[in-house]
UniProtKB/TrEMBL annotation:
<feature type="domain" description="Importin N-terminal">
    <location>
        <begin position="24"/>
        <end position="94"/>
    </location>
</feature>
<feature type="compositionally biased region" description="Basic residues">
    <location>
        <begin position="427"/>
        <end position="439"/>
    </location>
</feature>
<dbReference type="GO" id="GO:0006611">
    <property type="term" value="P:protein export from nucleus"/>
</dbReference>
<dbReference type="GO" id="GO:0046910">
    <property type="term" value="F:pectinesterase inhibitor activity"/>
</dbReference>
<dbReference type="InterPro" id="IPR034086">
    <property type="entry name" value="PMEI_plant"/>
</dbReference>
<feature type="region of interest" description="Disordered">
    <location>
        <begin position="412"/>
        <end position="439"/>
    </location>
</feature>
<dbReference type="InterPro" id="IPR001494">
    <property type="entry name" value="Importin-beta_N"/>
</dbReference>
<dbReference type="GO" id="GO:0005829">
    <property type="term" value="C:cytosol"/>
</dbReference>
<dbReference type="Pfam" id="PF03810">
    <property type="entry name" value="IBN_N"/>
</dbReference>
<feature type="region of interest" description="Disordered">
    <location>
        <begin position="950"/>
        <end position="991"/>
    </location>
</feature>
<dbReference type="GO" id="GO:0005049">
    <property type="term" value="F:nuclear export signal receptor activity"/>
</dbReference>
<dbReference type="InterPro" id="IPR011989">
    <property type="entry name" value="ARM-like"/>
</dbReference>
<dbReference type="InterPro" id="IPR006501">
    <property type="entry name" value="Pectinesterase_inhib_dom"/>
</dbReference>
<keyword id="KW-0813">Transport</keyword>
<protein>
    <recommendedName>
        <fullName>Importin N-terminal domain-containing protein</fullName>
    </recommendedName>
</protein>
<dbReference type="GO" id="GO:0031267">
    <property type="term" value="F:small GTPase binding"/>
</dbReference>
<dbReference type="Pfam" id="PF04043">
    <property type="entry name" value="PMEI"/>
</dbReference>
Amino acid sequence: MEISLVAQLLNDTLNPDSTVVHTATGSLDGLSHFPQFPFSLLSISTGGENHGQRVAAATYLKNFTRRNINSENRNSESNVSKEFKDQLMRSLLQVEPPVLKVLVETFRIIIVAEFVKQNNWPELVPELWSAIRNSNLISSNANCEWKTINALTVLQALVRPFQYFLNPKVAKEPVPQQLELIGKEILVPMLNLFHQLVQKALSTQGRIEMEMEKILLIVCKCMYFTVRSHMPSVLVPLLPSFCRNLIGLLGSLSFDYGVAPEEQCLLRLKTGKRTLLIFSTLITRHRKYSDKFMPDIVNSALKIVRCSTNISKLDFLSERIISLAFNVISNVLETGPGWRLVSPHFSFLLDSAILPALVLNEKDISEWEEDAEEYIRKNLPSELEEISGWREDLFTARKSAMNLLGVISMSKGPPTGTSSNISSASSKRKKGEKNKRNNQRCSMGELLVLPFLSKFPIPSDFNASEARMINEEQKPGYITTLVRTRLLPLYAIPASSPYLIASANWVIGELAACLTEEMNADVYSSLLKALAMPDDEDTSCYPVRISAAGAIAELLENDYPPPEWLPLLQVVIGRINVEDEESSILFQLLSSVVEAGDESVADHIPFMVTSLVGALSKSIHPSMETWPQVVERGFATLAVMSQSWENFIPEETEQIESSEKWVCGRTAIGKAFSALLEQAWLAPMHPVDGEVRPTPTCLDDSSTLLQSVMLSVTGSNAIQQLKLSELLLVWADLIADWHAWEELEDLSVFDCIKEVVSLHRRYGLENFIVGQMPSPPAPPVPRQSIIEGIGAFVSEAISQYPSATWRASSCVHILLNVPSYSFEAENVKQSLATAFSQAAFSRFREIQSKPCSLWKPLLLVISSCYLCYPDTVEAILERYAEGGFTIWASAIAFVCSGSFEPGLSTNSEIKLTAMTLVKVIEGLLGQQNSGVGLSRDCFKSLMEALVRLKEVQDEMEEDEEDREAEEDDEDEDDDSDEDSEGDELEETEEEFLERYAKAATALENGTVVEEGDVEDQEHEIELGSLDEVDEEKVVLSLIERFHHVLIQGHDIPSHVSNKLIDALCKETSNPEFCRNTLKSNSETKQTDMDELGIITVMSATAQARLNKYIVKSILQNENDGVTKDKLSTCQIDYEVTLGKLKSAYRSSYIRAWEDW
């Protein structure tokens, strides 16, 4: 292969003409099959004629490597030859920085596949150290072809994969031997060199060398990746020296306020940032190695946080360093020796570090006006923040300072010896006991933080005594005092600062779990005032309103409802304007209000729905290709209202007046939703492939609205008025082509499918089974019907999305068994059965090797299809796999057996399986000798299914009897549950790791049940007319016709015999006697159905003879005439019984069952 040809094609890929680029790319793909192709790319990336060509070659090589190595073929890494790896290493050590940045990605892909996962490439580590040692800056040889920066960049790529644990199936993963080798061969000598470079860098007075700074930064990155999860043993002795060097680098950092740092200073700042990350990792992950130098770490971090006084003048990187310094102090304070190291500096931290970072500054005001969303994200987040010493998202100094303030406030001083001993004595502690011991000591929040904050008066006319947060007579009520004296008065000030109000809103939201009932009205009154605050002439109040909405949502989340719901609803509804971006947040708040208010807001839902539909209708225009976010949020809110209204049904319909009111409300809601969906779907939106179609947006929420429309139907006239047939046709078309699946996004679609079928069964829908004919001159081919669109959606769900398998399978039974198909529509039903069986069997074949819970719904789908069209389904199964019908029949028989977990659990599942096995056995026995063996296996499973059906029916009767008793005991159970919450055991670190290791193993083995499917496994499935079939008569008919093949001379497993005995004896007047009699006979343990019948007759005969002898003995000694007459009659009855049993025995012996 000529390198010049590849180079020319790479040049063509940079051509502005798309046709030339497409042609060149196709030619390169064709050349990629030649063995020398990657070598050519590597040569061009090193010595190409221009910079663009070299970068293009490196980029194409990266993508080529990813395609060939990161594939599902685990053996693909062997395709990388030693020759190519050697040439790649040489190229990496020589190329220019832009090419190196791309080419090192190729190296990373290869080392992950070969070195990290397979532990191949043994010469890599020694060769890399040799290259580093002999590179231009290390060996002081300016003419050396190896570049030090390149070699260290390769080292960084080599250790980067080890920053994470590699095997989640191991609870405590040891240090990988590859990382130990890197540490021994490269990092140990590199740290000695690092010490020399640091000393040299610190000795230069104000002069920073660019190359040296790059080396320091890359070495710090390598060490960070190395120790982030693991600690190689060879590095432990070098940690003290390494940390001292890092502390020296931190001390050399310079924060020039308002001056952009030069490139050399920028590198030193980046090294400082990486240093603080290393310190946080050592403290949180490797504390036993970091305790000795923790005091020096604290002192260096304290020097950095001192610079927070000028935080508004710092650039982003400098602020990030201060943020990390706060985090390091928080990490230290959460350790055992942390209190002793940090507590002497509490006053300094509060006065000179934390408070300056919290104070409003010029940068905040500018951001408030220019980018309010960014200001809210940084300073007024609506989610509750956890107090923790290490959070990745604490990237601002203010957030980190607040985090440290929280850690200080929650700290309770140095642990006592007693509590320490208790803590070390047991790895498990009860949460209640732990909290009780902690509460015995006052926190620093009470002793230090609150008194410190009390020094700052609020901007009002309140006097100092009223504004104090600390009241000696009310120590337990700190939160109440804080809110009443420091927050609520702000809302009463006539011209209060919006910056203060926004912060007050956020604080109230953070304190939601601690607020008392007595201040409920005042809190909500203040927040509603903030929620409705208009903009000033000079200042926007958008953050005030958003933070108020977030605070109210937090209050509702913490079960702190308003005293009255109507004022809150009026303010929210009144401010919603779809043209305003703020409405997106208000829609979310309204959803929270409706969910929390439940019955309290249900009466207002019809009015709110009508109002919101009117606002949303104005924002849906035919020219829209996608809906704006505010419209999507509006649909989501309407869906929540719809569900809340439907949940309101059971209790209210008991009263006639409320029932009439509810029906009127449901009708109004249905009309409003119908009008909205009509505008969204029936008005043309935008052309797709030459056809005008509606926008496929918000299908899940739209399905909820459509279901609500269907539920409001009370007659056939309403279907026409609401244009339900037209809406359902569009909806079916949309879901048929829908591929934007998410975790729970399809729930409403499946619920809507069930409601559509139910509505059609009650009233009949146009175009439900057979679509309408198009008007001429279009071809006379019916358009897709509603059920055909639904069928396409369900088939796709079964074949592609495991999380939807159970719900989709449930819909299959509904679609096949519930609707009544006319003769003309039979082809539609057959096409549905064909599509469903194909999708289910295809998916089953993918998971066939590992029996799991998903087997059951897939096999039952094929069962329903088979009962409808046995010949068609059998042909489909045989077409998809050789012996496909036998595979499915064996699997369905296995599912019926007791060895399959979770097994058949509902009455309908067992009945469907039993009917299927009968049909399968009939089909197999029609194949003469070819299907006898499988038919007998199916028959044994059929017997087990009948026994299991009897057990399930008995369990259902018992559950019905126990239900009332459970309801009576429910209140007592609730009380005991509340009492037991405090006794919940806290999970230890070892238990946590073990649990996740087991979960990872289960995930890899494919035994994990898909999220959201567990609740669907116990539901009854719809059988339609099959539900009326008497399965026992069908089975008896099967036995009568084929008993000579299925039963004669073939044993039934002992556990099946025992279950049959139990089931048969339950029907007798003395079940225990029957059970003991049959099981006591040793022949019963290994018997077939014929012999079991003979044993039953023999046992009954023996007992009858014994009873006749006893009656005769009593009669001989009896003198009373009446008693003797009765005993004589009894003796005659036993004689008749013995005669019949004797006849039955003869018939059983010769297997003349018809004579019984």
